[in-house]
Amino acid sequence: MARALARIDLAAVERNCARLVSELRDGAELCAVVKADGYGHGADSCVSAALAGGATRLAVATGAEAAQIGRRFPQIPLLTMGALAADDLEDALAAGSEVAVWHEDFRRLLSTRGRAQGRPVRVHVKYDSGMGRLGNRDPAAVLALARACAADPELDLAGVWTHFATADELDSSFFGEQLDRFTAVADALRAEFPGITVHAANSAAVFRDPRAHFDMARCGVAVYGLDPFQGDPAECGLTPAMSLRSYVADVKRFSAGDSAGYGQTWRAPSDTCVGVLPLGYGDGVRRALSNNADVLVRGRRRPLVGTVSMDNITIDLGPDTDVEPGDEAVLIGSQGEESILTEEMARRIGSINYEVTCGISVRVPREAV
Ligand SMILES: *Cc1c(COP(=O)(O)O)cnc(C)c1O
Prior knowledge:
The chain folds into two domains: 10-232, Alanine racemase (TIM Barrel, Alpha-Beta Barrel); 242-340, Lyase, Ornithine Decarboxylase, Chain A, domain 1. Helices cover 31% and strands 25% of the residues. The protein is built from eleven helices and 20 strands. Strands 1, 10, 11, 14, 15, 16, 17, 18, 19 and 20 form a ten-stranded mixed β-sheet that branches. Strands 2-3-4-5-6-7-8-9 form an eight-stranded parallel barrel, surrounded by seven helices. Strands 12-13 form a two-stranded antiparallel sheet. Strand 4, helix 5 and strand 5 form a beta-alpha-beta unit. The chain is elongated and about 80 Å long. The protein starts with a strand and ends with a strand. Bound molecules: pyridoxal-5'-phosphate.
């Protein structure tokens, strides 16, 4: 009996990567994105599973993440995707990571770092084709930057890339616009620098359009078996890797009118039994799930009743329950014939699956199986 436990199915991670590889056009590599501790799943164990499933490269967001992954997997090409302040940059480079560049002044800084470390810095020139976030918006500047990188002995021009804003919105035509803009820039660069790695796709783009695959896809959410389109991961052939488990610490009899939890937001409409589970928003079970979630016990859905508190939640078990203290409770995942998807929990709180798994707090041990 664990108070709160996130079980991570590494076979699912491996299978999901194999699924992504099978979807990619011939020759395109899978880069597993393991930022934010593998979207809350535990980066170290997920990297091993992703590599077993056919991923050949890794990506993270921050210098500290690069340090962690680079230390454990020094032989695997690693890209740090984020903007890097001075300390972050030192961490990323010390880890042997490749880095993003989209301004000439940062290129010059990278050049001095390359000289200092005695080995060229591998750089990916980033084109902002419409995300409006990181990257250079001017195709001519991107081209000039790439040429400057290629001409600089302290730098290796490793790639050119972009990121889609609406790959997961199937009715958006903006995806096609971004793809067209990026394709033009990528074609021009490939003509001059045939060896570079061209990459654009996230998980949604991989399933959406093979023209977005180029030489490599940067997939995060699908690696963990979460649906890039916020529906059912099974529709993309993906298997959820994380389940969130607790147990019934107590079962108590409620008379009609008795209340559970802070603020008395729920009162028993009739005599019933209430189960108490020893986890709460301190574990990442968001307070917006108050009176707004189901929990599986003995293979059946039980409504979460009352307010989610930091360390406890309560569920309605009905008047004649067979549930006993010690029974397993599943907040995300399967039990018997029933299952609750991360996507369901996300929908209930007006969020997305990414935020739910990233939000499972450090208080919850990750158990890789
Ligand atoms: C996080 C991230 C990805 C991965 O996106 P998913 O939707 O999780 O597949 C790819 N590229 C960049 C730049 C990212 O920040």
